Records
---
Amino acid sequence: MSSAIDMEERAKARIEAEVQNLLDPDAFQLSEGNEKVLLRQKSYIDELEMDVDEEQELKEKKEKLWKLLCTYLPCDVLSLQKSIVQHVEYTLARRRYKRDKCSFYQATAISVRDRLIERWTDTQQYLSSKDSKRVYYLSLEYLLGRNLQNAMSCLALRNRYAAALEELGYSLEELTEEERDPGLGSGGLGRLASCFLDSLATLNFGAWGYGLRYKFGLFEQRLISKAQAEFPDFWLKEGYPWEVERPDVQYLVRMYGEVEDRVDPETGEVKVAWKGGEDVLAEGFDIPVPGFHTLNTNNLRLWTSKASCEFDLGSFNDGQYYAAIEEKERSEPLTSVLYPCDNNAPGKELRLRQQYFFVSATLQDILRRYKKSPSHGLLDLPNKVAIQLNETHPAIAIPELMRLLLDDENLCWQDAWHIVHNTCAYTNHTVMPEALEIWPLPLVEQILPRHLRIIYEINHQFLSEVRRRWPGDPQRVARMSIIEESEPKMVKMAHLAIIGCHKVNGVAQVHTGLLCKSLFRDFYEMWPEKFVNITNGVNHRRWMLQANPAMSAVISKWLGTHDWVHDLGRLERLKELSSNPEFQRDWQEMKRYNKRKLAEFIERTCDVDVDADAMFDVHVKRIHEYKRQFMNILGVAYRYLRILSLLAEEKFDELRQVVPKVVIFAGKAAPNYSVAKDVIKLIIAIADTINSDTRIGGLLKVVFIPNYNVSVAEVIIPGSDLSQHISTAGFEASGTSNMKFCMNGSLLLGSRDGANLEIEQSVGRANIFMFGANTKEVRTLQTTMQYRKPQLDGRLAHVTQEIRSGRFGPTSFDSLVDSLLPENDRYMVGHDFGSYLEALEVSDAAFRKPEEWTAKTIVSCASMSRFSSDRCIREYAEKIWNVEPHQFRPPNKNTSSSSNNNNP
Ligand code: NBG
């Protein structure tokens, strides 16, 4: 048996190596001697040419400099080895003879980064020479995941690095494990931003991401005393080898102070001056973002806060030396910590200051770059720059860009507004009232007095237009105002964003429908053309190729090509093979291999032994009431009780029909969200009871995998059979893990919500298990109690009784259980429970027929092209940004010495 497993392992390892060979085409390599010919004419050296000087001596110096810079770094195995050991010794100052995985990981990363940097510099220079329109993606969150394998694959250097490391006594896999996930985001919104960056680079769009370099990422979750415990996630502990600090990129950001009207003595014009306040220094850190098999390399610029170096000299002279320095040092913590904001309002003053700090530094940077070209007039900005606001978190960009244009650039209001409005666009990611950002007006006034003035003026002009269009409708005016007349007054960031942007998009059809029909209905009536839908997508190269090499190998083998990696539509051809027994065998083996890997991971992280032949039923995402992990665990408890009663009644035929199952949960609860934390406790309590009950044998196991993040997702998703996306209809804007699971040959059990509905259209009703009330029904149920079932489903009542009775341990879960009562059931857990159990039964029945199940998973996977972030980015480019790709092509080796021109 064990030798059979060894053989299987070896076969899989071979298959994985094969796919990597396919994906590292030699044709793409740059090798030593490849001149950076494209840039020969407009090179760094020419930039030295401040004043035209034809002196022979200067020419010679420039020629020398050019020769030193003009070739790309070599990428043969020996050169890679040299670069790695040099970085160990000279960059990191460690001993290269000592076996030290951490140093070798870092040195390898820096060696890869060197190769990215040259492509990145050239791409930027190339794009400037084309004067192409740039996209700037502003997001307070990114979940980048590990970068090592991704960057190597993009460069088509994975095999060479693997070989180089192998000869030095390291495996690429073990070094990969040394990389820590930068936890700069909290959930789907941040991961989406990262998928977008990858697709933007791969599709050759000149686009930069901007964000904050939080010192502490989203907390590290551990399970202590059967509950979630939060620990600081100091992801920078060992340094982050992918970033480049930019002490040359610094901006001052002012907050607080007061505004004053000043009359220009010459023109009589009233100008507003913002005085006093505190300055914080923003410094950029750049992370190159490579595209897959293209030279184009974009940038992610993250800001960190620093003390500004402008001291109050008076304090020094008064002998207050230390006090003056301490005062300045206090600005450092601004970017220390990420507030988890996934559908929870953090309500922190610091968060508003972070948002403004981020936006101000970013806009100053964008304007500086734009103005570098002498031909660029400010009025032309919307033709050259597109700014995308990821949620309202960066919405303060609207008044900040106005301020920069009015106060610093001296434009008039109309011109400034024209520019802002046509440059910015806003993506909405939630309709949940508690997640819509509103800030107390007094707080905005205190931190950003100048911006509040601008917001008032925007609101004034906007409401005048509303009054003109709907005379005699004061309720409408009140509803649409940016300022909510509550006590204290509040500033509604979503309204500000809608008014200030030329496009607003939702992230799935049903979600955009809700924006237009309910949440932003007034605005939709006013500007229907402003609203567009762009259904989310995910980067299939990370989620299939990188996370699931075994599946990628099977796909490439059966398609005879790996062109699907560039165009997911090519997978369609797998559908006709879905019943082919040999293909099915390969596919099933692949799934088993991934499940075994996941089982090992579960053993390591949860100390629970699970059987890879059981159905792996997975529910992983942030823990939230609307995502209904609670409903899932109640269903698990029901399954357990049912197995026990079948045992007690000795109904062996029925027992034989029970599908053995491993139920896998993972996800973080916001530290201050006690209901979500109670749900985790309940999951752990029920899991402990079930896992230690020897009577049920291997029929049911439940695990909660701690500290869910991108890397953990890369292990879990490929190993799943069924995955649950069961949010209350109307609450999950889109969901993106649903797409990742389908791409990995896992079937969905889903509610009629978000992108589930579009996935259903793509994969076909027979290949997805849908259940529960739809958006409209939920609406009715929420507003009219009379439609609610007066009593709990009998099965649910039984489960809740058992929970209350202490069957799952002494902790009281009464308040959770009370939330199920029809009058409290905001998330329709009680209401949907019956149809949920039925959907589970249908999925069990399907799993009992392996061939049919396999065919379903193949068809699902092959139907996913719509959900690639490549499609999504093309839609943004066309519908919102109006930008074209510009590919910086590899220099042609054969013509490199003769063609000294700029034509790609
Ligand atoms: C989340 C939604 C998800 C959606 C992602 C990405 C926020 C505010 N929203 O449903 O809840 O998939 O955004 O669009 O985090």
---
Amino acid sequence: MAAEIIDGKAIAQQVRAEVAEEVATWLEAGHPAPGLATVLVGDDPASGVYVGGKQKASAEVGIEGFDHRLSADATHAQVDALLRELGDDPRVSGILLQLPTPEQVDGGALTEIIDPSKDVDGLTPISAGLLAKGRPGLRPCTPAGVLELLRRHDVELQGAEAVVVGRSDLVGKPVAALLLAQHATVTICHSRTRDLAEVCRRADVLIAAVGKPALVRGDWVKEGAVVIDVGINRTDAGLTGDVDFDGAAERARLITPVPGGVGPMTIAMLLRNTLTAARMQAGEPAWT
Ligand code: NAD
């Protein structure tokens, strides 16, 4: 079987166009524009590019941007104060602290003080707790993007065997929780899983979020499975995922490429989360 390729770029574009339309309707109804505040500490070039991309994408859909850039020697207390100020600012619907932060600033601890109703990255303990309990809340963007790709391809999750390789707070755990909420039978694998290949071979839906090029071999993929590769690895051959794409594509029914699969979905879901947060703050029962 030659797999159909899931075009994450096109789906992300669709999501962005939908958010733009919904923002326009929101403004026509007399609401203020949703606002996204990004906080970048230091001058890491890659982080600067990511934040710039998020702000540009926000502006394109009618979200107002608040682009806060602090110098590399900013103190933990300064970032703490800024995040609290943004929490109180009614123009700001969503707050994103770009990680990693310089050493003197504890990014993990600061993520925890973000107002949960503005937690568009979905990484605060409150958001994680709501997800774990199956309650509505703001979901982490990349995992939400994975689910959106599956949804747009009508992948049946109810009762499906889903295997997630990777158990990070950022990707693996939330993806597993989102799949569970869709009634999949979920197995989470990690670096100490025994016979990873055999577990992967059970999967109707196989998600790889590890950060190791081509860890998942083609013959680990069940015939007709759906394979979602979250990995982004910079190798001599360019960007590659965690899945041996050519081998897996011979057996899978649907597969994401790297780049152009999950990657573009992250910003699209951030925009959706920002609109959701604005709705929620206006009293709409819009939590997803
Ligand atoms: P992480 O390093 O926090 O977690 C990696 C996980 O993989 C860990 O849980 C670990 O137990 C597991 N693991 C490590 N070696 C393993 C092995 N040999 N077998 C099985 N499991 C193993 O990474 P992360 O933040 O979850 O990111 C994972 C990958 O996804 C990275 O390549 C990252 O760049 C990518 N990523 C992409 C996006 C996006 O597309 N926008 C977003 C976030 C992360």
